[in-house]
From TrEMBL:
Name listed for the protein in its UniProt record: Tetratricopeptide repeat protein
InterPro entries: Glycosyltr_41/O-GlcNAc_trsf (IPR051939), TPR-like_helical_dom_sf (IPR011990), TPR_rpt (IPR019734)
Classification lineage: Bacteria, Pseudomonadati, Pseudomonadota, Gammaproteobacteria, Cellvibrionales
TPR repeat residue numbers: 128-161, 162-195, 196-229, 230-263, 264-297
Natural source organism: Sediminihaliea albiluteola
Pathway(s) of this molecule: Protein modification; protein glycosylation
Keyword list, A-Z: Glycosyltransferase, TPR repeat, Transferase
One Gene Ontology term of the molecular function aspect: glycosyltransferase activity
Transferase among keywords: yes
Length: 336
C-alpha cells in the first residue's frame, strides 16, 4: 500500500469515527477534504452522500451540550427524554447511547443503562467511555466480576489509564482483594499523582489491612491535595483514635466541625476524644450538643450518663473525705 492510499484510509477511519460519535459536521468536512485530495475515492463520496441525505436536522455538538446542561442542572428526566428523542432521529450513534446510559446511571436505572451501553458497544466495540460506564453500572449493581472484566479490557488496550486503574481498585476493594486494590490505586497514583480520591482509597485499603501508620500517610497526602476533603479527614481521625492519639484525632474533628458545625458523627468523635483525654466537663457539653441534634443517639446518652454518674460518685467521695478530715481534726483538738 502506498503512503498516499494509507493516508486516505486513515482519514476515512477518522471521519467514520466522528460520524459515529455524533459530530456530523466535522465528519462531512473531513470527507470533503478527502475528496479534495482524492477525487475518485468512492468510499468518501458514498459516506458523504449518506450524511448529506439524512432526514431532519443533523446531529451536532450543540445537541450533546444541551443534554449535558440539563444533566448537570439535575433535570434528569428532561435529559433522558431529549437523549431518547435524538436516538430515534439519528440511528447508529454509539455516543448517543452512551450519553443516555450516563443519565440512566445517575437515575439509578442500571439495567436500562447496561442495555444502552450494550448497543453502543455493538456499534463501536472499542468505545472506551462506554466500557468504563458499563463497569460503573455493573459495580453499582454489585456485579463485581463483570465490572472487573470491563476495567481489565480497558487496561489491556491502554495500560496507562489512571481512571481504569482507580476503578479497578474500587472493584477489588468490594471483592475483599485488598492487596490487589492497593496495587491498582498505586498504579493510578503513579499515572496521576494529584488524585486525592486515589490517595484516600489507598488509605482506606491500608486501614482495612491494619497498616494504620501507612493509612495515616495516605490520608494526609489526600488532604494535602484537597484540604476540605472531609471523608479523608474523618478517616484520619479514626486512624489516630485507633492508635490512642486522642489529641490529634480531636483536632481533626474540630476542623470538620468548622466546615460542618452540625455533623453529629464529628461531634460524637470529638466528645469521645475529650472523654478519653480526661476532659470530662468539655466532653459532657459536647455529648449534650450531639443529643440536641440527634436525641436518639444511644452512644451520646450512655457516655453522658456515665460522666454524670462519675461526677456524683466523686462528689459523694469528696463529701466523705471532708467528713473524715473534720472528724480527725476534732480528735486532734480533743487530744491537745
Amino acid at each position: 500500500m502506498t503512503q498516499r492510499s494509507f493516508s486516505a484510509d486513515q482519514q476515512l477511519s477518522q471521519a467514520k469515527k466522528l460520524a459515529r460519535q455524533g459530530d456530523i459536521e466535522a465528519a462531512k468536512r473531513l470527507y470533503g477534504e478527502i475528496l479534495a485530495q482524492f477525487p475518485q475515492n468512492k468510499k468518501a463520496r458514498k459516506e458523504l452522500k449518506a450524511l448529506q441525505e439524512r432526514g431532519g436536522s443533523q446531529l451536532s455538538r450543540e445537541d450533546f451540550e444541551r443534554i449535558m446542561r440539563l444533566f448537570h442542572s439535575g433535570k434528569l428526566d428532561a435529559a433522558q427524554a431529549d437523549a431518547s428523542q435524538l436516538i430515534r432521529l439519528h440511528r447508529g450513534q454509539p455516543a448517543l447511547h452512551n450519553l443516555l446510559a450516563v443519565i440512566l446511571i445517575r437515575q439509578n436505572k442500571l439495567e436500562a443503562a447496561i442495555e444502552q451501553l450494550g448497543i453502543a458497544l455493538q456499534l463501536q466495540p472499542d468505545f472506551s467511555d462506554a466500557i468504563n460506564n458499563l463497569g460503573s453500572a455493573y459495580t453499582k449493581l454489585g456485579h463485581t466480576e463483570q465490572a472487573q472484566r470491563c476495567y481489565l479490557s480497558l487496561l489491556q488496550a491502554e495500560p496507562r489509564d489512571p481512571d481504569a486503574w482507580f476503578n479497578l481498585g474500587n472493584v477489588q476493594r468490594k471483592q475483599g482483594e485488598l492487596s490487589d486494590a492497593i496495587n491498582s490505586y498505586q498504579r493510578s497514583i503513579q499515572l496521576r499523582p494529584l488524585s486525592a480520591d486515589a490517595h484516600y482509597e489507598l488509605g482506606r485499603s491500608h486501614l482495612d489491612l491494619g497498616a494504620i501508620e501507612q493509612a495515616i500517610a495516605n490520608f494526609q497526602d489526600a488532604l494535602g491535595i484537597r484540604e476540605n476533603f472531609l471523608p479523608a479527614r474523618k478517616s484520619l481521625a479514626k486512624a489516630y483514635l485507633s492508635l490512642g492519639k486522642y489529641s490529634a484525632a480531636g483536632d481533626c474533628y474540630k476542623q470538620i466541625l468548622q466546615a460542618q458545625p452540625e455533623d453529629t458523627d464529628a461531634l460524637l468523635g470529638l466528645a469521645d476524644c475529650q472523654r478519653l483525654l480526661g476532659i470530662y466537663s468539655a466532653a459532657a457539653q459536647t455529648y449534650r450538643q450531639v443529643l440536641a441534634l440527634a436525641p436518639d443517639s444511644s452512644a451520646a446518652k450512655e457516655q453522658l450518663d456515665a460522666i454524670e454518674k462519675r461526677k456524683d460518685t466523686k462528689r459523694r467521695d469528696d463529701m466523705t473525705l471532708n467528713a473524715i478530715v473534720k472528724q480527725l481534726h476534732q480528735v486532734k483538738q480533743a487530744l491537745d
